[in-house]
Design brief:
single chain; 390 residues; alpha/beta; 2 domains; disordered N terminus
């Protein structure tokens, strides 16, 4: 738990950092995402003596899978750390939690969102004022949806391709920044790198790779007050911010939110979190949390993502979306179900879509208050309690 807030709330002598970074092989540092160094010690392996005598291996901002769990112990056992004398903290892998007795789940994205608000970080337009809400409810939108593609991933290529093929893109605000080579994109299309990706072969059997579309960079422009658009001269700066990368800060241009009814939101991982893929398993990240606190969001993610979101105390948007997709375990079936939901939304008249949007805004506001009213100390106390029970 090496977030800045912890160091301010609790003194450093509450923690012990027994492992020198120089004692750790690079592979181990990568597995536990150890990027915070404390005076030469690993910040991801620590002890809290007042709570437990066990080593705590904290992967902090990622959710590891079963393969990575075992690989970590292949390395740390050489440092005197075993499954019996240690606890692993990870983001959201409940299969891992159910399989091993020494796993503690702690969602750092939710925690960071709460602490960012607690410390008064830049939460532009958060919470919505009465005037903001009145404007959102009264004003019709220039576009139906918002869709950031972000880092090129196979399922993201498919959904963006579908929006293009169905001629939906001219009704939405979307971006695709192609930093991968065309060879990589073409290969990813037909040979997904994740093992679960093969279950979605039905999509690329239906459609060939669109060489022309994916060769272009699609950047969002500024929206002017009269509904027009002008080139965004700062887009390359904007895309590097935490906002674009999925952090919670709401510095994203509010015009994108004001001018769309719903967000087709890409989470970090789409593949089923079944513990068998040798990849980062899914976790609810700042992308989803940020999305549901600003507008109704249709979330492309692993099964039961919406269930986890509700476990944090948030509300989702059954008024607008058929949320049965959240319970579909097969990735291919879930993906095509989401496409069918998009189809149904795009068929709606703007007046009908606006009505669903207005009904869903109450849940957006509710979600904002979940962030504002959650005490970060309670999250830490809950974390400490989980540690002490192990």
């Amino acid at each position: 738990m090496h977030h800045k807030w912890i160091r301010e709330k609790f003194t450093e002598n509450m923690f012990e950092f027994p492992i020198l970074l120089s004692d750790m092989p690079n592979q181990l540092q990568h597995l536990i995402y150890d990027c915070n160094i404390l005076d030469g010690y690993s910040a991801s392996i620590y002890k809290i003596p007042s709570i437990s005598d066990k080593f705590i291996i904290d992967t902090w901002s990622e959710s590891i899978d079963i393969y990575e769990y075992e690989k970590i112990y292949n390395h740390v056992e050489k440092l005197g750390i075993t499954k019996d004398n240690s606890i692993i903290v990870t983001m959201s892998n409940h299969i891992l939690e159910n399989r091993y007795d020494n796993v503690v789940i702690f969602n750092s994205s939710f925690y960071i969102a709460v602490t960012d608000f607690y410390y008064g970080n830049d939460f532009t337009y958060f919470p919505y004022s009465d005037q903001d809400l009145e404007n959102l409810k009264l004003n019709t939108k220039s576009h139906k949806f918002l869709h950031f593609t972000g880092t090129a991933k196979t399922y993201r290529l498919y959904v963006l391709d579908y929006l293009n093929r169905m001629k939906y893109l001219n009704q939405g605000l979307y971006s695709f920044l192609n930093y991968e080579s065309m060879d990589w994109l073409r290969t990813a299309w037909t040979s997904p790198r994740s093992s679960a990706g093969k279950e979605r072969k039905r999509y690329y059997e239906l459609y060939d790779f669109d060489e022309e579309f994916f060769s272009k960079e699609h950047a969002l422009d500024y929206i002017t007050e009269d509904g027009g658009k002008v080139p965004n001269p700062n887009f390359y700066l904007f895309k590097e911010t935490l906002e674009y990368k999925g952090g919670f800060k709401t510095t994203v241009q509010m015009d994108f939110i004001k001018n769309t009814y719903f967000n087709i939101l890409n989470e970090t991982v789409f593949d089923s979190n079944d513990g068998t893929s040798f990849m980062k398993n899914g976790a609810v990240t700042g992308k989803a949390i940020k999305g549901i606190c600003h507008q109704p969001s249709l979330i492309l993610s692993y099964p039961k993502t919406l269930t986890e979101i509700r476990e944090f105390g948030f509300k989702t948007f059954p008024e607008m979306f058929d949320e049965s997709y959240d319970y579909i375990l097969n990735d291919e079936d879930r993906f095509f179900k989401i496409l069918s939901i998009i189809d149904e939304l795009m068929k709606l008249k703007d007046s009908d879509l606006h009505e669903l949007y207005v009904k869903s805004l109450d849940n957006v506001v509710y979600n904002q208050y979940v962030i504002m009213e959650t005490n970060p100390i309670s999250l830490i106390n809950n974390f400490f309690e989980k540690i002490s029970k192990k």
